[in-house]
Amino acid sequence: MKEGRKGKGEGTEQGRRKTATIRVGGLAIGSGHPIAVQSMTNTPTQDIRRTVRQIRELARLGCDLIRVAVPDQAALAALPEIIRKSPIPVIADIHFDHRLALGAIEAGAAGIRINPGNIGGRERVIRIMEKAREKGVCIRIGVNAGSLEKGFLTIRRKKGLAEAMVASAVRHIALFEQYGFRNLKISLKASQVQETVRAYRLLARETDLPFHLGVTEAGTLLAGTVKSALGIGLLLNEGIGDTFRVSLTAHPREEVKVAYHLLGALGLRRRGVEIISCPTCGRCRINLLGLVHQVEKALAGCTAPLKVAIMGCVVNGPGEAKEADIGIAGGKEVGLLFAKGRLLRKVPEEGLVEALMEEIAEMGYPVGLSSV
Ligand code: SF4
Hints:
By secondary structure, the chain is an alpha/beta fold. The chain has twelve helices and 15 strands.
């Protein structure tokens, strides 16, 4: 493939990469629809009570799709009840055993994630495909750098990891398309950011199927957030990606929170409160960090998109945060309340959070003043 050539599904700086639309349960995925946030439960799947509780918490935070691991029969047996009780579409994550994939489809999963390279050969992939077609279930082809089939290791050695992952994905896609099955989304995951980004860019030239993005084994909360924000963020900024998971070695609620921060920072999708706060400097005369924590806590349940600025001083505060819906600029033991850069009133430091919440409530946002 020549450098610079635009393929059928390649993103542009002007907008989102054009893709087909697929359905995962009631959720449409593709360029005509909002970018969907995914996470994965980390409870033992057979523990139905804990798994459902976690799914519900993630759904409340804005998770659109949830993936659960189905590594054995015990997990498979739990799946129907989990699916019935889940407020969002459930995707079953399957490796190695095609019977688990068939069982998960029968159990009512909205989607399944398989790596066709480790599911036991072409015939088994076709059986899964036919069952998915019969039940209207979406399949994610998940190519993973760590489990590339032997046949692609030469490409990896000669051309690179991204090229090998793309070659593997292209071959799998061709098999599905040969049978007229396009209820597919594709992922190409590696733990190296550049290789992951390069792989998705290359694959975008080859297909118009929607992409699930992720940087696998990204790491702990801080390191993983940086890696994911870079990898996923670069691609989303180029219009590539229709659904994604921020993989973190942390509670999955952090994955969902980071996902919305990422989407918000790129201006792609907003949900909940965005706090703009300054780093503070020698001019700051209030306890800004304490203030930010209090405001964050008080607005934790607010799902409406709202920008709140909390700035350390009046020198730059209101001006720097003109884009905010409402904000505070600190003074000496007082704070100035302002909206869209316009001064509202002066409030003593101890009453600042309450005054801010009152103003936000007056603007029509649902806030619980009791939590202040
Ligand atoms: Fe310093 Fe004021 Fe800027 Fe905060 S807003 S960093 S306190 S100058």
